[in-house]
Amino acid sequence: MNSLIKQISSYFIFLTLLSLTNPASAKTVIEIDYDTASFKNEKLRLGKLEVDVSYEKKETFDEIDNLHYQISYDGVSQLSSSTLTQFTGGVFLKDLDGNGTPEVVIRTFSGGAHCCTNYTIYTQRNNQLMKSETGLLDSRGGIFQDLNADGKFEFVSVDNAFLYAFSSYAASFPPSQIYLMRDGKFENVTRSYTQYLKSHAWEMYQAFLQSKKEQYEVNGILAGYVAQKILLGEYEQGWKFMLANYDRTSDWGLTIYQEDREIGKYLDFPTALKAFLIQQGYLNKNGQPQ
């Protein structure tokens, strides 16, 4: 019996030592949500990368930073910084570009209706940390996903400019935006992922059918659908579908503004949409796909 107890004890000691020395068993993710209590010096580790994270839960809105982190590489401190996040956020380590060196990803949320999520990414290059950001995004933000199973994680999001542009937030369906981390910077690679774009376009089509059936807003979906078809090289097909199906009674998005001042109104939704697509870079000044 004593021999069995010694064997079991030795086994658990071995597992403990393994967890301390094996990077694969180290913690690599911290998620923060509404129920997360304050904590100090939680450690993340992946390979030679280590991050110490502290968080102070806020009970009221203010502008004081409450997410603190220190990044070290190969035992050498590289950066100490802090930021503000409300209600939700997170820190995780992931090799986004497949070069063998993991990135540090800081996700923060500003609080408020549908806004705003930001991702800050730190990449180790030539013994220095490079910083890049997604910028403020709709509260859904985006997701890092290996779309083509090549070991590199794309940042999959949507074009936030389409939110509220021609319908309410709930009835908006923005086109895809896909970025890839290269040399510490985000590169727009949206048009390289045809299958994903087709899948997103199909979801838009199904959403349109449902909204039309329920006699709900459709122009916000159609605006995104036309842009999605441009990304697929199918602009004419998308435009014809929009012309046949748009809501002629809605005036959402028809008002023309200049420096927050109303200066006129577009004749109809197709005219307003074309101007918007030119403004957002989907069409050139002649109204042709970019």
- Number of helical elements: 5
Beta strand %: 25-35%
What global shape is seen?
elongated
Order of helices and strands: HEEEEEEEEEEEEEEHHHEEH
Unreliable sequence segments: 1-24
Average pLDDT, all residues = 90
Cα gyration radius (Å): 24 Å
According to DSSP, the number of beta strands is 16
Q: Report the major sheet.
A: 6 strands, antiparallel
Q: Into which percent range does the helicity of residues fall?
A: 25-40%
In whole angstroms, how far apart are the ends? Answer: 77 Å
Helix/strand-derived category reads: alpha+beta
Report on the architecture of this protein.
- The structure is a single chain.
- By secondary structure, the chain is of the alpha+beta class.
- The protein is 26% helix and 32% strand.
- It is elongated, with a radius of gyration of 24 Å.
Describe what is shown at a glance.
With 290 residues, the chain is α+β, with helices and mostly antiparallel strands. It has 5 helices and 16 strands. It has helices at residues 2-21, 194-213, 219-231, 235-245, 269-279, and strands at residues 29-32, 39-46, 49-55, 67-73, 76-83, 89-94, 103-109, 115-125, 128-133, 137-138, 143-145, 154-158, 176-182, 185-188, 255-258, 261-265.
Features:
6-stranded antiparallel sheet, 4-stranded antiparallel sheet, disordered N terminus, 5 helices, 290 residues, alpha+beta, elongated, single chain
